[in-house]
User: Which sequence fits this backbone?
């Protein structure tokens, strides 16, 4: 049969449900949608209750309300102002802890308890195993290699010629553009402006240092001011312009971010004695290297951005436990893992080029999220560089543990043991 | 100066901190790491307190304990068994709601209140605005196009010739391999086996239907059985083999997933009247299309996987509110957004090829997460296909709202208004 | 300075040439272009002379005419009918030969003299060195793993629902569609039809076997007939449709081609004794493996499609010498090279997933190109599968030789020795 | 059946050929390969005849010799010294001409006859059609946006710390490193050094201006000297180092090249009146834009590097006719094509970020290749920038013509008309 099996199977399943024409009919727009909720920007017990009244009427069960809009959440509702709209409660995500994780970094140089929020069995146990092996090897060496959040406006001109004249003006006006941008922020610095032309369109890649904040809003406001200055002063005027041209890698995996770095670029390494590998990780160096070679080929053959095993697991859990923007996992969880034989035993290296995170701003000041930073000892001003290095060290632990589990044949069994009942 | 500005800047900053040799010295491994925490797989108040005792001694402040290990969390600790190890409490993430979102889907056909857990200002408001515009347009048409979670073991043989003989055996033994795999699961089905050879290595791309579960564990256990059968029966034996060859796109953006689909592949569309675009979204169709063209070029020039604005924001918030594995955002938040002029006004289409989600298993049964599914009316068996369609409809709302905000020049101001104070 | 050095430098250079406004003015359209040449589809001495008359008048020197439109070319001009329009002569590309290259393949099983047309010093010598090392190792094992040229039409419908109904019709009409396609060709077979939906658009990935021809035209004509049948018979009609949707990977590097294969997918391998590596290639196995690890990281960090050293060099030269479509190098020169330690010494593997080539059709029948196939012993019907295997074996030789050159520190010196004078 | 149709089909075909075990046996290494040809670096009639004597003995037919080693080739054999080894003759590739192509560029500002060497029917005719349409629109506006060939050595140190110290030394020694590099060349300039760290490995992206040469050898020799200086002077010494780390995008499609540019980056544009589109190209603007949207989606869905139709066709033909390194098509034939509606009619833009080409060195001085440059009026010193702009203008013509052909439904028929007989 010349049709792929998955297509045949899915069509059969759909047809078992209804006639094709009936299915098609279900997709037709229907007028008369119910009135949308008013957007309530300020959370409060009253506002929460108002929304629940509407949802209850629509049939959402009372049990849901009890779990989301519990007493404590209602009493602290105002705390969440500036972090959420249309608030109806809180979701409680269990937090496990890993460590102490010994980090020998430029900015992070301590033994850290690392809080991880997740609902996935075996995740914390796996990272803990990696951290244990790392501790027995003297800790993880980590270095930040650069930083800089991008925001990239675009300007469309009448012609290539005008685009060129604009770039010429930008280059000669760089200092003034920087002043305009930096006037909007007390912590941000505009490090560089890189103009990229495609025909009559000019992109300006603006790279900022954002202090201890993740900085996504900071770079937006600063770039808005930069654009305003350019529009005010440039001798050539664009036909249209946009504050962000989908050119920064914001919240998505891209080769630009992976190559040039967005957020902090951090590299981490451990040189692990053979005995630690074998006893703590339960696989031989030969097995791990054999798996490493095949996993690298897998990454290449499937067109991954970078090549690594599961940065996303550790990062998502750390981001969640410390009030980061979890959506940034889409861009931060890319990078490179290498495993090689060394004189000592096994040399493991990870590099994460796009760590978007902070210790001030965003969700970092919320009660339980600030507590997460407190577990690390990294709450507030001055700690973002260390948090980035801890994140990279953590990812290294995860790569080590998962790789050893697959290499040593424990991958299936570990999940079976730690997951809740036989759920498959 | 022939060195890039960002490099010069960062080096200067490092040197301001310490001498290069002193920085280098900080990276040296240090023996004598503190004993790691024992891994405690079963959460309970006692276990939580035991870990806190250790952390408190190490200096973690009592305030952190109060926020994470609150009364309610301690009393419900056992509930989290099978979802976390080394539990120390819960992080409380505020949940906002969007809707009712009118969805005209094959599986989802209703008006949905959609819970979104996030700490990022403006996110809920933005999706709410999109949902409102969609409601005024008759809702979102959505269709699931396919499904199938991948697990891909690898087998290394002595030679290309043996690899070929193994593939020949696999093809002739497909039915027996499927039986072996399916014996491990009551809900999973193995839809297809696609052998890929590179030299002496054979990858078997196994695609499963996983019922209402996200299915990552299910496909692991089933593939483990399939491999056991192959190792037992195949006339040619591999020199090494691995249950997963980093070839499935699991927890990372890859072109394989984007092309072939991992999890559910869903497409969603709305044909929005001009008047709705202008009044609800605050931008003209011309402005939106102009931005769309530039944003598409941005996606291409920066090497995105797919081309879209911010699927990650909506997906991460929905996943978190409904007990999904948030790390899967790394793979699920890829896809395609198109905006085109239509006779009605603006035709907007999104396609998400990799939706990994479920309504049973994982974190979906936890108290507040199950409540999130209850808000949607999609808790438990039979609802995963609808949840996937709601997710795609939600992403469409977000694409619409963000695109209109950038196109209409409201992007910076909306964030300024809704974020907490002047934090930059 | 916040502007990248390369940008500053280039702007300075431009300004040294002229004022920015003067440069901008040069880009303005100018009316009154000279009349274009008439397109002359049939080459002949008379037609060639006619074009030269026009060019000579426009100032093209007589010396150019002598070199391109030499006696022999003029006398054989008609031979080139169906391969060129507006013919003005021939360019003479020097051909070197490599071998005999011992190939132990499924289809190619012999010792081959391999003709390579190139103007780049050291290329032939480098491949020759690889072939020599391979010969001393018993030859290259090669296997074709699959074949199938893609052509992918697209159909846009009024809605997702109609797109779905069309796919349903296509699946149920597959046999008739295949008959329609295959009626246009005596050698082509339509192997599979894979429908891909994005919103209201349907792509049909049609995969063909093309016999001994490269097949680009064959699949175009067959798919045109398939589309005509669909348009004639389908109960739902598209609003627009296109014979090729830029969805086949035709003449460009793509992850689709690299993953799914376009043209022939071939893998080749040699297990080379340590002594051969060291004496023939001039580098130790340790050096080669060390370089291999770094080169692999380089491929990943720079976002290559696949990971290899220079397939393009060997393929372009072979394609040119045997009348292939050299533009296909853009898609064929992707793939994977692996180097690993083995019991014997060094195991080297290459896989090329997209070999577009043939031994009939295109330029393969032209006098000197057919001679190139004759050197290989692979002219005409029945030889395309062997040619593909020879191509892969050749690429392996090149990977081996270049890798050893870089690893052993001979890379610069080899080029210095063989290039023409000191030209830099 | 759970196995993909293409796999089933291919296995069946193989089995029709022989038993699996017999096929497997064919791949076994065989000792006793015939002695390889001695490598003859200096072409001459005698050397050519010597190789033919060997090949003739091995059964290569005399007819092949006559075509490749013709009188003229034998008499001019020495001309090819420094461009080929083991020379056995020349392959004659037919050259067609397109134009005059009106180019309004920064460096190219004239009406050009453009020679294209190809064996593919319809290629020259298609580009000629595009050139005609362009001429009727006032010509193509073109601008070079930057230049710079990369060479990227790698250095592996004992640790991250040492890697950092090396980068610190490189930055402080940049001027001396540049002097060392530039001492090797009279025309090359080292524009920038961009250090990239991954763990203990340092890559130095060295970007050179290469004057009128393509420059691949120039940058190799210069970087060799730079490395020698670094090894001599650096206070930290690498454990291993390599002159090129597969990090430059040399001869392959990569996102690095597409983003940062390798070779010359050129953009070209035409704003074509509606009437010209319709009468010269035979498709309406609506049809072309409709196709453009779908082709763009095709590029994204299949993971192209960039998004364009067939740069490779025009570039390969121009490179071949002018003595460029045709293998560079693998890297040069990437980029971006945009088609949009304008006040005039249709705005078409192409950008090619990686044009590797020259007017001196390589094959540009060979008799018929120099003649190709003479047809353009761009032979020798001072003309490389113009050649790059002509190349981009040419690619624009091809994009226009092919897109219109597919959009207007002439794609299949044009190939049928111009190809040689019914060859499918």
Assistant:
């Amino acid at each position: 049969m010349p049709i792929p099996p998955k297509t045949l199977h899915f069509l059969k399943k759909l047809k078992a449900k209804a006639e094709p024409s009936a299915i098609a009919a279900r997709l037709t727009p229907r007028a008369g949608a119910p009135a949308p909720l008013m957007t309530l920007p300020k959370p409060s017990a009253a506002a929460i209750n108002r929304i629940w009244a509407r949802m209850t009427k629509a049939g959402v069960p009372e049990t849901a309300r009890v779990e989301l809009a519990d007493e404590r959440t209602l009493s602290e509702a105002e705390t969440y102002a500036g972090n959420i709209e249309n608030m109806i409660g809180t979701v409680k995500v269990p937090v496990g802890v890993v460590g102490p994780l010994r980090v020998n970094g430029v900015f992070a140089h301590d033994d850290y308890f690392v809080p991880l929020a997740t609902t996935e069995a075996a995740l914390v146990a796996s990272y803990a195993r990696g951290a244990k092996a790392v501790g027995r090897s003297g800790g993880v060496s980590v270095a930040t290699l650069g930083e800089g959040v991008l925001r990239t406006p675009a300007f469309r001109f009448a012609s290539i010629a005008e685009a060129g004249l604009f770039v010429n003006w930008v280059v000669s006006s760089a200092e003034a553009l920087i002043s305009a941008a930096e006037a909007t922020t007390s912590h941000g610095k505009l490090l560089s402006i890189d103009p990229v032309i495609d025909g009559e369109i000019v992109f300006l890649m603006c790279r900022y240092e954002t202090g201890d904040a993740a900085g996504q809003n900071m770079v937006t406001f600063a770039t808005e001011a930069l654009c305003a200055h350019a529009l005010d002063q440039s001798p050539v005027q664009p036909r249209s312009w946009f504050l962000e041209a989908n050119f920064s890698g914001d919240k998505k995996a891209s080769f630009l971010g992976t190559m040039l770095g967005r957020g902090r670029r951090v590299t981490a390494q451990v040189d692990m004695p053979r005995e630690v590998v074998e006893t703590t990780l339960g696989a031989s160096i030969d097995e791990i290297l054999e798996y490493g070679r095949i996993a690298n080929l897998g990454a290449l053959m499937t067109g991954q951005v970078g090549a690594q095993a599961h940065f996303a697991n550790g990062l998502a859990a750390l981001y969640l436990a410390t009030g980061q923007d979890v959506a940034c996992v889409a861009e931060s969880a890319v990078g490179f893992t290498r495993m090689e034989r060394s004189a000592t035993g096994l040399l493991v290296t990870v590099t994460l080029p796009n760590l978007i995170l902070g210790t001030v701003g965003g969700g970092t000041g919320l009660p339980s999220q600030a507590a997460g930073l407190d577990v690390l000892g990294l709450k507030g001003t001055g700690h973002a560089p260390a948090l980035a290095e801890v994140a990279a060290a953590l990812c290294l632990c995860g790569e080590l543990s998962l790789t050893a589990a697959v290499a040593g044949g424990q991958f299936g069994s570990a999940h079976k043991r730690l997951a809740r009942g036989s759920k498959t």
